[in-house]
Amino acid sequence: DTAVSQTPKYLVTQMGNDKSIKCEQNLGHDTMYWYKQDSKKFLKIMFSYNNKELIINETVPNRFSPKSPDKAHLNLHINSLELGDSAVYFCASSQGPRAGGNRNSPLHFGNGTRLTVT
Amino acid sequence: KNQVEQSPQSLIILEGKNCTLQCNYTVSPFSNLRWYKQDTGRGPVSLTIMTFSENTKSNGRYTATLDADTKQSSLHITASQLSDSASYICVVIASGGSYIPTFGRGTSLIVHP
Hints:
By secondary structure, chain A is mainly beta. Chain A has strands spanning about 5, 10-15, 20-25, 30-35, 45-50, 55, 65-70, 75-80, 85-95, 110, 115.
């Protein structure tokens, strides 16, 4: 009964390839996010969707394209992968459109997808 | 530029001991501050949230403090357990707009038996 689940957990691919990461939440939240955790362990928000509508796009290259078919799913497609894309990508959800969650609804994170581009 | 700095970067303690982790921030305007616990290979899990008017908030053996004047927060862990070994991340949310969070790098805590 995992609340936020993302697949795959590990993804190893070569430069130039296109890959997707899937995310699903069963918490009934209306907002979902993609975060990137770099090698220095900093987490940074990439995108957020509220009720399937994009509300945050933090200057992410357009090679990254999120897609939200419904409130419970937010997938991340990455084109033409580069070495610098190697990181751990976290999906998260919360109730309400505030990127950091709100008082009664913190961010609920998935367990991450470790992407390695060779 | 909004920044969150945490110290120490890493900490090793013996089981049963107490410890305190620090967080300094320059995020403005301030909305709220959260502490998250991130186990290895897992996503962060929220421990506490503190708003401007709150000085102390407890969650079991975890007690967070906030001094909004000096822009400092601390997380105190009492009677540490092996399961406390994790990274503890301070997150400060700016008010206005989409309330973008700024994450600290985290403090890596190792509890030895």
